[in-house]
Design goal:
By secondary structure, the chain is mostly beta strands. Helices cover 9% and strands 40% of the residues. 8% of the residues are buried.
Length: 65
Amino acid sequence: MAKCAICDKTQSNGNKLSITRSHISKRTSRTWKPNLRTVKAEIDGQVKKIHVCAKCLKNGKVKRA
């Protein structure tokens, strides 16, 4: 399963509601996946390819190689 190497963000599950939202039986399950990017990052002095979410990249939590 997809997972961020920095913040451990994974996919979350929930319900997709119908357009009318009137009947409780009109719900189906869906998933929300994180916005992952594969980047070369410097970890413990070595360059490795890791999966990082876009939020961690934007906040500067990863030092790119």
